[in-house]
């Protein structure tokens, strides 16, 4: 049975912005959302029990408590929710997951969806970043100077399903797409996403020094998940260009 189990009734949210961090190309969404939750000391607000999610439990180092693999974290001061996921969402479950999440959070707050697009780049070169939106989301992007796409493309995987659901239902949503290395975790792209995309949309500065300083450690720790995403390509949230002929 689909359910969002709220754990913190003491946390008051008005019209929160929800930032999604499902695993995808370069793990940019997961890295960015994990960093956001840790940097802002967000509290574990809810467990996500949507149908189709893997029936597993996860745990972290130096912590004996088991948790669900998909969770929501909250920051009442910034009126912010972060969706953190330790597992990929399979294509058959993607639309059901999107409907489950949107049915729970139906008060009209903006959803920010994150995706990498496979792009190799020279060392020291900033990745490309652009945004797309629906139901007023495009105006929010323009207001903070986030560029529109330079080419046609599509977003697939669970993030694509969430964006598709937003278009179909008129949900206010933003999609941020960042160039990221396709075969390995890309903390630098995640940091750029936070600094130039998520931070401006939230109207706050997001420190990223620790994310950049620990890039080598993060790449090593997250490499196994990145390999899993490669092996199950269709479960990976990603943007990709559309050719002239389809």
Automatic annotation (TrEMBL):
Give the UniProt entry's GO cellular component terms: proteasome complex
Pfam families per UniProt? PAC2
State whether keyword Coiled coil applies. Answer: yes
- Which superkingdom, per the lineage? Archaea
User: What keywords would UniProt list here?
Assistant: Coiled coil, Proteasome
Q: Which residues form a coiled coil?
A: 208-238
Q: Which PANTHER family match?
A: 3-ISOPROPYLMALATE DEHYDRATASE (PTHR35610:SF8), 3-ISOPROPYLMALATE DEHYDRATASE-RELATED (PTHR35610)
Protein name (Swiss-Prot/TrEMBL): Proteasome assembly chaperone family protein
This chain's source organism reads Haloplanus rallus
């Amino acid at each position: 049975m689909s359910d969002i189990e709220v754990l913190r009734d003491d946390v008051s949210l008005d019209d929160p912005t929800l930032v999604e961090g499902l695993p995808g190309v370069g793990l940019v969404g997961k890295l960015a959302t994990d960093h956001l939750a840790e940097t802002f000391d967000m509290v574990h607000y809810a467990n996500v029990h949507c149908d189709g999610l893997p029936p597993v439990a996860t745990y972290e180092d130096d912590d004996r408590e088991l948790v669900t693999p998909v969770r929501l974290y909250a920051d009442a001061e910034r009126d912010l929710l972060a969706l953190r996921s330790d597992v990929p969402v399979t294509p058959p479950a993607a639309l059901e997951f999107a409907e489950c999440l949107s049915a729970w959070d139906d008060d009209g707050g903006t959803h920010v969806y994150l995706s990498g697009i496979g792009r190799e780049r020279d060392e020291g070169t900033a990745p490309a970043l652009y945004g797309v939106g629906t139901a007023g989301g495009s105006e929010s992007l323009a207001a903070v100077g986030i560029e529109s796409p330079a080419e046609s493309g599509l977003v697939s995987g669970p993030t694509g399903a969430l964006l598709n659901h937003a278009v179909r239902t008129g949900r206010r949503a933003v999609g941020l797409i960042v160039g990221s290395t396709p075969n390995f975790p890309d903390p630098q792209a995640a940091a750029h996403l936070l600094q130039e995309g998520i931070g401006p949309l939230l109207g706050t500065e997001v420190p990223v020094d620790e994310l950049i300083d620990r890039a080598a450690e993060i790449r090593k720790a997250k490499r196994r998940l990145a390999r899993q995403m490669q092996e199950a390509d269709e479960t990976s949230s990603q943007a990709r260009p559309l050719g002239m002929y389809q």
